[in-house]
Design brief:
This protein is of the alpha+beta class. It has two domains: 110 residues, Ubiquitin-like (UB roll) (Roll); 321 residues, 2-Layer Sandwich (Creatine Kinase, Chain A, domain 2), CATH 3.30.590. 32% of the residues lie in helices and 19% in strands. It contains twelve helices and 17 strands. Strands 7, 8, 9, 10, 11, 12, 13, 14, 15, 16 and 17 form an eleven-stranded mixed beta sheet that branches. Strands 1, 2, 3, 4, 5 and 6 form a six-stranded mixed beta sheet that branches. Helix 1 runs antiparallel to helix 2, helix 4 crosses helix 5 and helix 10 packs across helix 11. The longest helix has 21 residues. The protein is globular and about 60 Å long. It starts with 13 loop residues before the first helix and ends with a helix.
Length: 459
């Protein structure tokens, strides 16, 4: 099922639908949001009439450092080629994409519209995540193929509000549920939160497919209906905004860290399939027999996804999720309905699809999806043979390629990856390298609470 493209009303155009909502008083504020490289929504709140009259036709100005800053908004250094003090932090032009406009019940009388950034030459800004994914989808379209996806994400809900130095999982920030995979006997506070989240998402035109608890305390998994891959990513960043906002309104904290506590891992699983002229391209016959296109797609993912780990595992914390014996993969293997593999083939007949399990919940969905599509195109354009499927616990594999064990290793792989440069271009790769290097630098020079607890009295 495709994500609704005009959720405001059945008016003949998105602009007319938004204008009608403004005219009858349902919308007084429009949040015009860029998606930054970290997957967060950043932007401005506009008076609704000003947005319609000025921003829709002409765009808005925002500082270009929004697409080149670290997670804590430290700008790029001089000489990086990105927006920096050296250039005086210029603006770029932000144009709203009205196809994404929707009312959002978690903000009073507000609509949310995603936007894209352009330079003074009217070219897409470097590392605009939506454009990075568009480029890979265009490459896929050159092969006559269209990508469909369903995103399945995990996050952990804590009672209380996080503050630096606070013990996550302690009395002041305890998980909101006791844990238990598929558990249905949950505390009233958890049930209320899930009810409000599902209601708000449905009212915004983004109904969920299912919600379930995961094994870890406080851990929740949300899945959305299958649809267009690009729209699925648009929907995902809005969902995360809703999940965080509604948690804060309930005196709780939702975190999408890949590993918020030792032994806890949250993933972003991408269910992806392809169609050619509307016909599923992965199944060869009815059942679970893969077509040549399906085999080449899997071969490409297994071959190049380790070199693209920075796109789906962007932080030092991301790599603490890849543990043997967990539900996160450690080797590049594939199998049929095998959740220990990096690429799981599931479904049958027309619904045959791949579930790519390498991404963490902290991933920017556009960049993670772009990595998958780039890997698929790599497989389509090469003569790679798909390796034998894995039948049992893939964590016991010894000869198959490993996923990077750290962001340092992932950065080195990306810097020297010819397939990555071919797929994304030197400018995008340089920007990704800058952000990864900045994250590594910060972590290497920061003394953590865990280090102090382990060594303060023992060294």
């Amino acid at each position: 099922m495709a994500v609704p493209s005009r959720p405001l009303s059945p008016a003949s155009s998105p602009r007319e639908a938004l204008a009608a909502a403004v005219g009858d008083g349902r919308v007084e504020t429009v949040v015009c949001a860029l998606v930054d490289p970290h997957g967060r929504l950043v932007g401005k709140r506009f008076g609704a009439r000003h947005f319609l009259n000025e921003v829709v036709p002409h765009g808005a100005e925002m500082c270009a450092y929004l697409l080149s800053s670290t997670i804590d908004m430290n700008p790029a250094p001089a000489g990086s080629g990105l927006a920096s003090m050296e250039e005086g932090f210029p603006d770029f032009r932000v144009m709203p994409d009205l196809e994404t406009a929707r009312t959002v019940p978690w903000l009073p009388k507000s609509a949310l519209v995603l936007a894209d950034a352009f330079t003074g030459r009217d070219e897409p800004a470097v590392l605009n995540p939506r454009e990075v994914l568009r480029h890979q989808l265009r490459r896929l379209a050159a092969h006559g193929l269209h990508a469909h996806a369903g995103l399945e994400t995990e996050f952990v809900l804590y009672q209380g509000v996080y503050a630096p130095g606070q013990t996550v999982g302690g009395p002041g920030l305890a998980p909101l549920t006791p844990g238990g995979d598929y558990g249905l006997n949950q505390p009233p506070a958890f049930t209320r939160y899930i009810h409000h989240l599902q209601h708000a998402l449905a009212a915004a035109g983004m109904p969920v497919e299912a919600v379930k608890t995961e094994a870890a305390a406080g851990q929740i998994e949300v899945t959305f209906p299958y649809g267009d891959a690009f729209q699925a990513c648009d929907q995902h960043v809005m969902f995360k905004h809703a999940a965080r906002t509604l948690a804060r309104q309930a005196g709780a904290q939702a975190t999408f860290m890949a590993a918020p506590q030792t032994g806890v891992g949250s993933g972003l699983h991408l269910h992806v399939s392809l169609t050619r002229n509307g016909t599923p391209a992965f199944p060869h016959h009815e059942g679970r027999v893969l077509s040549q296109t399906g085999k080449r797609a899997i071969a490409g993912m297994l071959d190049v996804l380790p070199e693209l780990a920075v796109l789906y595992a962007p932080n030092t914390n991301s790599y603490k999720r890849y543990l043997p014996g967990s539900f996160a993969p450690t080797r590049m293997t594939w199998g049929i309905d095998n959740r220990t593999c990096a690429v799981r083939v599931t479904g049958q007949g027309p619904s045959l699809r791949t579930e790519i399990r390498v991404g963490g919940a902290d991933a920017n969905p556009y960049l993670a999806m772009a990595a998958v599509i780039a890997a698929i195109v790599h497989g389509l354009e090469s003569t790679l043979a798909v390796p034998p499927r894995w039948f049992d616990d893939a964590h016991t594999a010894r000869d198959e390629p490993e996923l990077p064990a750290s962001l340092d290793e992932a950065l080195r792989l990306l810097e020297h990856s010819k397939p990555a440069e071919h797929a994304f271009g030197e400018e995008t790769i340089d920007a990704l390298v800058h952000l990864a290097a900045a994250e590594i630098s910060h972590q290497h020079r920061t003394v953590t609470d865990a280090e102090q607890a382990r060594w303060f009295t023992q060294a």
